[in-house]
User: Fold this.
Amino acid sequence: MWSRCALQIGRQIIAGGTKIKRFDKYPFEVAIIDVKSDITYCGGMIISSKFILTAAHCITKEMAKTKSICHTRNMPKKCFKPPKTIKIGYINHPTKDVMHKMEVLRIIPHPHHNAKTYTNDIALIELKTPIVCLDLPRPICLPAKNLSKVGNELIIVGWRYSEVEELSGQSALTEGKVVQVPSSNCSYIEIPTNRIVCARGIKSKQASCQGNSGSGILILHDMNYYVLGVTSIGPVNCKSGLPNAYTDVYANIDWIKSVVKDLPTI
Assistant:
């Protein structure tokens, strides 16, 4: 069990969709992998030795988008992927891009998630066995207070590209800079804006794109990385320059704490 969450490690952030060469820079970032195809299709973040934070839509079945039974609170179990169909991958060496994969015990979507509207698009994944508590990987810090503020310069990390010109279908851990904007700027998505963080690229082409879902939007505060939001939904066209919506972690902190009892401290 970790006693502390992630301190800043490594060099400063590079603006744009930059591939990360040192994997200890974001030691909390994990890949969600489809067992059958062995393809990374979403991301997530380590928050304790056995729990991963991600987006609820990353653990829903494809049919959930069109089936009305999945468009209500307390979605039935059949709307979600069985735990045996996904694995969690993380890198445990600072410079070697080799995934260590772990089996999933259970998935825990937010009880009020709606697959159609993306409301409460947040979930937890419990691992079958704990992650060994070494220098790498490490858990991300959860906010103890509301750090969300319009104008914040934030960091996006994910397993596809945040630089839209590089969208090639390859899996790679990348980073980019975005700025927080008023939640009303995300109203075009038709998602309730009172429980989201809305952000757009500092340069118009920066965005969270395919494969970044479930990863985090981060803020560096007092030399610690905090996750402000979980990558949820954005424009269909990454080149549009429109902002992306991220599920507000602080707004869901009580639910997270009700499930995860061994959260590390700052």
Q: What stands out?
A: The first strand starts at residue 18 and ends at 19. The two ends are 14 Å apart (CA to CA). The first helix runs from residue 253 to 259.
